[in-house]
Design a protein that fits this description.
The chain is an alpha+beta fold. It has helices at residues 2-10, 25-30, 53-65; strands spanning 38-41, 45-48. The protein contains three helices and two strands.
Length: 73
């Protein structure tokens, strides 16, 4: 979570939120959370566990390249 917040502080186009799934069980169900931390980027890329910074950045860039549903490529 720290890395996501650092990215958000560096770039106005990035935001980061942390959610306590015990307090919001509907979100745990929506995102199929079975392990923490679970990171969801733009509703399109998801991964669980603590990952090295390089992999985290790779996943963020992967999500940035994806077109939102319904948008033409």
């Amino acid at each position: 979570m720290r890395l996501a917040h650092q990215m958000a502080m560096e770039n106005d186009r990035i935001s980061a939120d942390m959610v306590e799934v015990n307090e919001f069980p509907f979100l745990a169900q929506k995102y199929n959370i079975f392990g923490v931390p679970k990171t969801v980027v733009n509703e399109s890329v998801q991964f669980e566990g603590a990952v090295p910074e390089a992999i985290f950045l790779e996943k963020v860039l992967q999500a940035a390249e994806m077109k939102p549903e319904g948008e033409k490529k």
